Amino acid sequence: MTLISLKTNLNRQIQLLNEARDNDEQQQHSPFTTIHQCSQIRWLSIYDLLESIKRSHEPLRALLLECKQSHRIEKINMVIVNQLIDFFQPWRNVLKELQRGNAPSLYVVFPRINYLQEDLRKRERQGKSGKI
With contact defined as beta carbons under 8 Å apart, do 78 and 57 qualify? Predict the structure, then answer.
């Protein structure tokens, strides 16, 4: 089985799992999604890609285990993926706010810089106290 056909098959199986869960949960939002094949290198795209990996990891792991292909996912370090998501979250918030609408957003820049600086200080304190 080629990698492309495996990916296509896995995406379809994840989609079927989502549909089954949606039917069981009476159309509630499913936490799973298909795997992003590629992403442009931009802050928001990187965040979306990491979120896609996080949401798809568990169903993908289960499907690969059934296909006896689990070695394909073992190299993904979910601790690092989650840390990157946590790191990019404030940046995502800032970029979304700056890109909102067609109105000028220059007045938002300095408060958002302060927001990011405070987030970095908080992370440094957590790192020094061993909470990370």
Answer: yes
* pLDDT tens per residue, range 17-63: 666 665 654 444 455 555 555 544 466 788 888 898 899 888 888 88
Q: Where are the domains of the chain?
A: 3-129
Question: Rounded CA gap, 120 and 132, in Å?
Answer: 13
Phi-psi region of 101 (alpha: psi -120 to 50; beta: other; left: phi over 0): left
Tell me how many degrees the CA angle 74-76-77 measures, rounded to the nearest 5. Answer: 110
Q: Which of 111, 113, 100 is nearest to 44 (CA)?
A: 100
d(CA 90, CA 98): 12
pTM above 0.70, yes or no: no
Q: How far is CA 101 from CA 10, 46, 81, 96, in A?
A: 37, 22, 30, 10
Q: Using DSSP, state whether 35 is helix, strand or coil.
A: coil
The CA-atom distances, in angstroms, between 73 and each of 8, 15, 105, 111, 120 are 16, 18, 42, 40, 31
